[in-house]
Specification:
This protein is mostly helical. The protein is built from 24 helices and no strands. Helices cover 74% and strands 0% of the residues. Helix 8 packs antiparallel against helix 19. It is globular and about 65 Å long. This is SSS family solute:Na+ symporter.
Length: 565
């Protein structure tokens, strides 16, 4: 790690210090508005759509977006765009148009609570426990990268960086709850863009623009010309057959993993739930979808630039590292995750380096804070209040939420050590999403559109769906199946989805469903259409209405897929 130290000067440290003062100041300011649990966990459901929309996308701008996607861009090239244009935007639009009316209209405080209302305590307990586990694991990814940045900047040991980084996030979440997280996420969104846009432009200038980058990728034998088009993306999917690759990306990533993450992940949905009305809640993911389309240009492209521009990797050359894969990277002391840091080290002058460092810190703090704020809500409302201590005053659960925040930050320090074992964090994260999100989406989508689905089917489908994803992962780890890239994650997610659907249908046919009158607001066919929209929506200008804006987003993302195909 010492060989990848960033040459920061006083001006860089000053910029970073100013940023942290703003972050802690926002937490202190938000503290004045926290007097109840609903204000701590859901911001009192009072925020406008533009705030929650930017927070929605910023909450996802953590390790997955910045380091993970730049690493995958360096490894696979333009097929990485699928994580945005196939694996995010369509699901975000679907969430805003179809699913948010159920979440917001039912006045639930979390996604697991919606599961309890639809399927009862069995599915609720399984979902709450698996979700809480997933959040501390994913928070560990963001915390690991936070600690890595501190190590690169100050030379501190990784464990010291982990503790310091966890302490900063703990401070402002404990003070201001979700409001502090959301307002910081809005600030962090602009800081991240201000950091990555200059890095991309300067990097492109160094390689001779877009034409120079494509020429060097085509001729240098590092990534290969096939990495200059998004389809069929065989190296990304792990399938050698182009047809199977397209099916794997569209079904595994674009449907199961994507819809599972964006439509049922409380980390994201929580931001929309903090909106002031149902129209603002629906607009939250739709607003977020527009910057989401263009973020890969400042995240994926820098990874590709690093793959051809950086030449002084420790012990080995960039071409050796990227063409021989992870074993060569491990031998050199670097991994794909270092691509962005090495590019920053080599192309950014002091001052801009400080902005870039603040941007990376902002990204990882936004991601970790999102995980922690979702974790404390589910632990307090869905586990502690539901199953441990019931019927206590509201301020008791507010205290529980703050202690849950402390516990999550401590646990994340240890889960960060798990993340450190993966040279490409996207492999790790896609594995987690396959375990937790794919079966949950199957249960949600079937239960929301099929009133016959029973409470027993809800929890049995979840358990067996998750088990099937774990089984595929074990087969991969033991060498029974061998798919390069992230093909294993796609197959595991597909298996979890299919098994969950099949099991849920079979179990539903032999068990008793809930009475129809209990399904209002939970099942599409039993919910009056008037309950799913704001009666004043028609009077709003077109740019504030969910359906027209979602259609515009869909047209744009289809156009991007065609242009870069």
């Amino acid at each position: 790690m010492s060989e990848i130290r960033l040459d920061a000067h006083v001006i860089d440290y000053v910029l970073i210090a100013v940023y942290f003062l703003f972050v802690l100041g926002v937490g202190w300011f938000a503290r004045r508005g926290v007097s109840s649990s609903i204000e701590f966990f859901l911001s009192g459901r009072s925020l406008p759509a533009w705030v929650t929309g930017l927070a929605f996308i910023s909450a996802n701008l953590g390790a997955v977006e910045v380091m993970g996607m730049s690493a995958t861009g360096a490894q696979f090239g333009l097929p990485t765009m699928h994580y945005f244009w196939i694996g995010a935007v369509p699901a975000m639009l679907f969430l805003g148009v179809v699913m948010m009316p159920f979440y917001y209209g039912s006045k639930v405080r979390s996604v697991p609570e919606f599961m309890r209302m639809r399927f009862g305590t069995g599915a609720h307990l399984v979902n709450a426990l698996s979700f809480a586990s997933a959040q501390v694991l994913i928070a560990g990814v963001n915390l690991y990268l936070l600690g890595t940045i501190v190590n690169r900047l100050l030379g501190w040991p990784l464990w010291v960086g982990l503790i310091v980084a966890a302490g900063i996030v703990l401070a402002y979440i404990t003070l201001g709850g979700l409001s502090a997280a959301i307002y910081n996420e809005v600030l962090q969104f602009f800081v991240i863009v201000a950091a990555l846009l200059p890095l991309t432009l300067i990097g492109l200038h160094r390689v001779g623009g877009w034409g120079g980058l494509t020429e060097r990728i085509s001729n240098d034998g590092m990534l290969g010309a096939e990495q200059l088009s998004t389809w069929p993306g065989e190296q990304l999917s792990g399938f050698n057959n182009p047809v199977l690759s397209v099916i794997g990306i569209v079904f595994g990533l674009g449907f199961v993993l994507s819809f599972g993450y964006w439509t049922t992940n409380f980390v994201e949905v929580q931001r929309a739930m903090a909106s002031k009305n149902i129209t603002a809640a629906r607009m939250t993911p739709i607003i977020g979808a527009f910057p989401k389309m263009f973020i890969p240009f400042i995240v994926v492209i820098p990874g590709m630039i690093a793959a051809v521009l950086v030449t002084n990797w420790p012990t080995t050359s960039i071409s050796t590292t990227y063409t021989q894969g992870e074993e060569a990277a491990a031998a050199s002391g670097v991994s794909y995750n270092d691509a962005l840091l090495l590019l920053m080290r080599d192309v950014l002058p002091n001052g801009l380096l400080g902005v870039a460092m603040a941007g990376l810190l902002a990204a990882f703090m936004a991601g970790m804070a999102a995980n922690i704020s979702a974790f404390n809500t589910v632990v307090s409302y869905d586990l502690w209040q539901q199953y441990v201590v019931k019927n206590k005053p509201d301020d008791y659960y507010l205290r529980v939420g703050r202690w849950a925040t402390v516990a999550a930050c401590v646990i994340a320090i240890f889960t960060a050590l798990i993340a450190s074992n993966f040279s490409n964090l996207m492999d790790y994260l896609q594995t987690l999403f396959g375990f937790f999100n794919a079966p949950l989406f199957a249960t949600f989508i079937l239960g929301m559109f099929w009133r016959r689905m029973t409470p027993t089917a809800g929890w049995v489908g979840l358990v067996l769906g998750t088990s099937s994803a774990v089984f595929v992962f074990i087969l991969s780890e033991t060498g029974v199946i061998d798919l390069p890239g992230q093909g294993t994650a796609f197959v595991a997610a597909g298996a979890a989805f299919v098994v969950d659907i099949v099991v849920s249908v079979i179990v539903s046919l032999v068990t008793r469903p809930k009475p129809v009158h209990e399904l209002k607001g939970l099942v599409y066919s039993e919910t009056p259409k008037a309950d799913l929209v704001d009666p004043e929506e028609k009077s709003l200008p077109i740019w504030r209405r969910p359906v027209p804006m979602a259609l515009l987003g869909l047209v744009l993302v289809i156009a991007l897929n065609i242009i870069f195909a």
